[in-house]
UniProtKB/TrEMBL annotation:
UniProt organism field: Genlisea aurea
Transmembrane helix found in the keyword field: yes
Principal localisation: membrane
Domain of life: Eukaryota
PANTHER family, per database record: GOLGI APPARATUS MEMBRANE PROTEIN TVP38-RELATED, OS07G0655900 PROTEIN
Subcellular location: Cell membrane
Protein name: VTT domain-containing protein
Residue ranges of the TM segments: 6-25, 46-65, 71-96, 129-148, 160-178
Domain VTT as annotated: residue spans: 60-178
Amino acid sequence: VSFLKILLLLVLLVGIAMACFTLPAEKMLKDFLVWVEQDLGPWGPLALSVAYIPLTILAVPASILSLGGGYLFGLPVGFVADSIGSTLGAGAAFFLGRTLGKSLVASKLDDYPRFRSIDIAIRRSGFKIVLLLRLAPLLPFNMLNYLLSVTPISVADYLLASWLGMAPITLGLVYVGTTLKDLSDVTHGWNRISRTRLVSVPTG
């Protein structure tokens, strides 16, 4: 059973890798936001929230959704939709890492030596440590979702701490989105934010 789980996960990861390198993610996300704006009406915020799930699992930066939420729905509704979405995405990656991907994630721990001390701290104060990691990330956001899945933190503590810790940056991005003129500005803003994150967030 374990072998089949690992095989299934490897097939999934290969598919993800191929998609990331072959599909124009920027254009797809922009088209998605156009669809939300023009066709979904009151269902738009829900669709935006759900869209975070595949993006987070695929480790695709979701900043464009946060900016798009502000642009499309304004600050209150955009923040609620994006905040729920980012938490759903983090939860989905966590669940995947704790189930199908547990062996693979555990094998990657050696690539993140600083996580060993984090793991020890989580055993003592899981909620507090995850909250701090979300507020001031010491590891890349998408990888952190998976690494935390192999710690003993409960699902409830993980989700609540993640939601609270991600709220400030989400609020900031949504606010920036409310100041943009059109969807092209949303895309350009996402590119700048993505480059900044790649430079400023440690990768190992």
